[in-house]
Amino acid sequence: MNPGMKIDLPPTGAEAAPHFVDPAACRDWIKRLPLLNPRLTQTQLLEQLRALNGSALAGAVRLEMLEAMQAPVRFVQGESAILFTGKPLPLAPLEQGASDATHALWQELLLGYLRCLESLLGGDAALRPQAASICQRALALLVDAFADRVRAGQQAEPPLWRFAHALYSSAEALGVPRVAVVDAQRETQGAGTRTDAPPAARPVTPERVYVELALLASASLHELAPRQQRWVMGWARRWAAKVSVMAEPPVLTAALPLCVDLEGAAPPGFMPCSGPGARWLDTGELRKSLKKRLALLVRCEPGAVPAELGLGEDCVMPGCGEVLRRIYPRWVKGGVQRRYGRHPMSGLCRFVAGVDAVHYYVAGHQSFRPPGSAGGDELRRQREELAMFGRVATRFDEQYSQDHGFCLESWTLVEDWGLFDQSEGGVCLVRPIEREGGRIGIGQLVAVQPAARGDMRLGVVRWTQRRGDDLAVGIQLLPGRPQPVALRRTGVMAAPDKYRPGFILPLSAHLETPPTLILSPGSFRPERIMEAWTPIATRRFKLGAILERGADFERASCVEVA
Q1: CB of 284 within 8 A of CB of 294?
Q2: Percentage of the chain modeled with pLDDT above 90
Q3: What is the per-residue pLDDT across 428-439, written as a single tens digit (0 to 9) for each?
Q4: Where are the alpha helices (DSSP H) in 300-419?
Q5: Under 8 Å CB-to-CB from 54, ≥6 apart: which residues?
Q6: Mean pLDDT score of the chain, rounded to an integer?
Q7: Helical H runs in 342-462?
C-alpha cells in the first residue's frame, strides 16, 4: 500500500447482507427512513453501514452511497447529541446510550471512507478524481466524532490522532492536501455567522480540516461550557484557513507554530518535533486575526460586536471576549502561562456538591433552620448555650443528611492547579466512574476538604471529564473561609421572602479580593440589602457587583452596613 495510510482495516465478509449494493437503491432506501424517529433511523443507518463496510464493493460505488448517506447521518447525529450535550457526569444510562450510538455511527461512516481511500491507494483509477474529497470527508468525520466526544464529557480515544496523521499523510502522498472541494452537508450544518458564505461558494481542503482538528484539540474544550464550546468549534472551522501546514519550520515570529509528528500518535503541541514525519502549523496569520478582534472588542469601537467581527450570531459580550482571550495563548503563544505557582498534592479529599448539601456540611452537619423554625424548647436551649459558651453547641444531625440524600464523597486529589488570571488555585479530583456518587455539572457549587487541610473550602466546578474508567473534575477554589448563613432580601417588596442557605466569604488581604456573598439564583440586584442571619447575630450587606452566575448560585461583592 502507498506509504500515506498506515492503518489496518478489518477484512470484508460480513455475515449480514446489506439492503442495497447500488446508489439508486441506496437513495430509495434513504427516502423511506423514519426521520421523525431519529433513534430508530440512527439504528437503521448503523446496521446498514456495518453491512456495507463488510461487503466487497467497487470503490466508486461505495463512495457514491456514502455521499448519499451523509445527509440523514448528520441529521440523526445532531438530534442524538441533544441528549448528552452539557449534561452532568456521569451520564445517565439514556444519555450514555445516545453518546455511544452516536460515536458508533461516526466510526462506521468513517470506516466506509477509509475503505475508499484504501482502494484509491491500491490503484483504483476510478477514484483518483475524488482523492481530495475522500481525504477531506474522512478528516471531517474525525473532527465531528471528536466534537461529540467533548460534548459528552469524554476524552478522545488514543487511535484518533493515529487516524488523523495517517489521513493527512495520505493526502500528502496523493498530492491533494490543498485541493479545494465542496462539503455542502457539513458546511450547512456548521454555518453560524452572518458573514458565512453559502456552502457551495465556500470550498474546503483536507489540510484545512486537519488544522481544524488540531485547533480544537489545543483549545481544552472540556474546560468550557457547552455554549462556549460551540463558539470555539465555529472559530476553529472558520480560521483553520489561516493556518498552513509546513514541512520546514517557519521563520520564528511572535506567533509560535504548533508541531506534530505524522508518524506518531500524539496531538499537535508547541514542543518541537523532528524526523521525516515532523510538520509545523504556521499560526502567524491566525495570530493577526485574533489580536485584531481582541483589540476591537476591548476598545468597544462602533461595529465592534461579535457578530460583525465574524465571531457568530449567538456570541455575546463579555463572555465572547473572555473565551477569545482564553484560546489566544493556546493557539498561538505556546500554551497557558500560570499566574500562580503549582503546588503538587495527592491523597484523599472529601467532596460534596449542591448548595443545600454544602451548607449542611460546612455548618458542621447542622440542618438549615432559618429564624422561626426552632421550637420553644430548642430556642431556650440555644439562649442558654449562648449565655454560657458564647456559641450554640454543635450536634450532628446525620438523619437529616440521610433523609435529604446528602453524601460526603471520598475522591482522590491528583494535583493542585492554578487558573490563569482567575484564582490562586484549584484542585483536580478523580474517582472511579462506577463508584456510587452524585452527578457533577459545570458551574455547580461544591465544597472540598483535602486530607491535609482542616477546613472545608468552597469551589466551583470548572470542568468535568470522563477519563477511561474514571471521572475527573476540575474545581476553582473560592478565596476565604466560608461562613454558612441564612440569607434573605430586604426592602418594600421583600416581606414575604424566605430565608435561603447562603455563605459569607470574608475579605482576603492576601489575594486582594473583597468580601462576597454566595446567594441563591435570582437574588442579585445592584445595591440590594441582604440580611444574613446566624444564631449569634444578624448582619446586613449591600450588594455591589455580580462576580459570577453559576448553575445553582450567584456570587456578588458586598459591604456590610449598619
Answers
A1: no
A2: 56
A3: 899 999 888 889
A4: 319-332, 355-362, 376-389, 398-403
A5: 10, 12, 13, 14, 15, 16
A6: 85
A7: 355-362, 376-389, 398-403
Q: All domains of the chain, ordered by start, with CATH?
A: 1-179 (no CATH), 347-477 (no CATH), 483-561 (2.40.10)
User: Residue 302's pLDDT band (boundaries 50, 70, 90)?
Assistant: low
β-pair partners for 531 = 488, 540
**C-alpha span between 429 and 394 (Å, rounded):** 29
- Helix/strand/coil percent split, the chain, to 5: 40, 20, 40
Torsion of CA 48, 52, 55, 60, to 10 degrees: 160
On whether the CB atoms of residues 394 and 364 are closer than 8 A, the answer is yes
H helices of 22-179, where?
23-31, 38-53, 59-81, 93-121, 131-151, 159-174
Instruction: Identify the pLDDT of residue 423.
Output: 45
Q: C-alpha cell of 178?
A: 490543498
Q: Which amino acid is at 135?
A: C
Name the 3-class secondary structure at 449.
Answer: strand
Q: Could you tell me if residue 498 is left (phi over 0), alpha (psi between -120 and 50 degrees) or otherwise beta?
A: beta
Among the residue ranges 58-67, 147-156, 191-200, the one predicted with the least confidence is 191-200
The Cα–Cα gap between 241 and 180 comes to: 11
- Cα separation, 133 vs 143, in Å, equals 15
C-alpha cell at 562: 449598619
Q: What angle do CA 142, 145, 148 make, to 5 degrees?
A: 150
- pLDDT tens digits, 287-297: 999 999 998 88
**End-to-end Cα, the chain, rounded Å:** 82
Do residues 135 and 174 make contact, with C-beta atoms less than 8 angstroms apart?
Answer: yes
CB 554 within 8 A of CB 546: yes
Q: How many CB atoms lie within 10 A of CB 105?
A: 23
In single-letter form, the type of residue at position 146 comes to F
Look up residue 311 and give its three cell numbers: 465571531
Find out whether 510 and 499 touch, Cβ atoms under 8 Å.
Answer: no
Beta strands in 490-562 (DSSP E): 500-505, 516-519, 529-533, 538-549, 554-561
